[in-house]
Specification:
- The chain has helices spanning 2-22, 24-56, 62-95, 97-101, 105-109, 118-136, 142-164, 169-174, 183-189, 192-228, 234-255, 263-289, 299-312, 319-327, and strands at 110-111, 114-115, 331-333, 336-338.
- With 339 residues, the protein is mainly α.
- It has a single domain, classed as Up-down Bundle (Rhopdopsin 7-helix transmembrane proteins), CATH 1.20.1070.
- A hairpin with a 2-residue loop joins β1 and β2 (114-115).
- α2 (24-56) runs parallel beside α12, α6 (118-136) runs parallel beside α12 and α11 runs antiparallel to α12.
- The chain is globular, with a radius of gyration of 25 Å.
């Protein structure tokens, strides 16, 4: 009996080591995702505190406050579900390998090792960028507004369409039984396409959204620098740099998506991608809540105040005048204004 016990233990250990070797990339990706999840929790706490403080200072409208609170809670719940699903999948791979292939509970929350929250986190990040675009382009001419809304609608359709394919892995897999399936159907049915499309198209969609945001910010930066001087408008440079980092973080998974040589890197980035989609908008919320993000200066207000300085005072603008004028720049966040 002892010999049988040792044989069973050896077989179990050998199976465990084989399972770990086959899933080593997934293990590393889960560790990276867990580290990013810690960052998500830290940013969530900071965002919640800043917005709660702004609530007492009446810097935001009630509608904006409710939206931001709901958005923060929803995204952190998606991040929590993601890391939980990834860890459970890893546990099942190492200790219950048969469950994955025999229709266990893991299959209901994961698709090929990808948490089902992936498209929702992508939609959450894209939706936040769309909302920022709508805020920044408020007050433009009717023709420009229609053009912006049309572009945003197109980008939203692309994001939603590629994300919804993620849930059709099962039906597409059954299409592989066809006699001569189309190459596209075969690629999608293998499960690779349904995961690759959202990861590949998300950077493309966000490049379009970031281009709209940066274009609007450049316009206001030049307007402020032309009126107040080149030393002003640094907040715009910071938000443009943030957009560049945001796009870079989303672009990396799409760039390595089709390379078999970079498969380990692709697995790491694929597992971390949902957390990245949560971190990116949280960073923007922190910057906006701190008053250091995209500022919108109303031309009418700027004209009135600069006119007062130029014509009501015989002296040149002093440092105090410049400081007062800079402090009166209106910060638009959603439907609220901060002076």
């Amino acid at each position: 009996m002892s010999a049988v016990s040792h044989s069973t233990e050896f077989h179990t250990l050998e199976a465990f080591l084989d399972a770990f070797a086959s899933s080593r990339h997934y293990f590393g990706g889960t560790v990276v995702s867990a580290i990013l999840y810690g960052i998500v929790l830290g940013l969530f706490t900071t965002c919640f505190r800043l917005i709660f403080e702004a609530k007492h200072n009446q810097k935001y409208s009630r509608g904006t406050q409710r939206f931001l609170f709901s958005y923060l809670i929803s995204m952190v719940l998606l991040a929590t579900f993601t890391i939980g699903a990834e860890m459970y999948y890893l546990y099942s791979t190492l200790f219950q390998p048969g469950e994955i292939f025999l229709g266990g509970n893991t299959v209901t929350i994961l698709s090929g090792g990808n948490p089902l929250s992936l498209p929702f986190t992508i939609w959450g990040a894209d939706g936040f960028m769309v909302w920022r675009c709508l805020v920044l382009y408020g007050g433009v001419s009717h023709v420009v507004w229609i053009a912006v809304v049309a572009v945003l609608a197109l980008l939203s359709i692309v994001s939603f369409s590629t994300g919804i394919l993620f849930f059709f892995t099962g039906p597409l897999e059954s299409s592989l039984a066809w006699e001569n399936p189309l190459p596209l159907i075969e690629w999608l049915g293998s499960g690779t396409g349904t995961t690759s499309l959202p990861i590949t198209f998300t950077p493309i969609v966000n490049i379009g959204l970031a281009a709209l945001i940066v274009g609007r910010i450049l316009y206001h930066q030049r307007y402020i620098q032309k009126t107040l001087g080149v030393e002003h408008g640094s907040a715009y440079t910071r938000i443009m740099a943030m957009c560049a980092v945001y796009i870079g973080a989303l672009f990396c998974p799409g760039a390595v998506n089709g390379s078999s040589r970079l498969y380990p890197v692709h697995v790491f980035l694929k597992l971390a991608f949902p957390q990245i989609c949560v971190i990116s908008p949280f960073l923007i919320i922190v910057r906006v809540a701190q008053g250091r993000a995209a500022t919108i200066l109303e031309p009418s207000e700027l004209g009135v105040r600069t006119g007062d300085i130029r014509f009501n005072n015989s002296q040149f603008p002093t440092a105090e005048n410049q400081e007062y004028l800079s402090s009166r720049i209106t910060v638009k966040i959603g439907s609220s204004e901060e002076s």
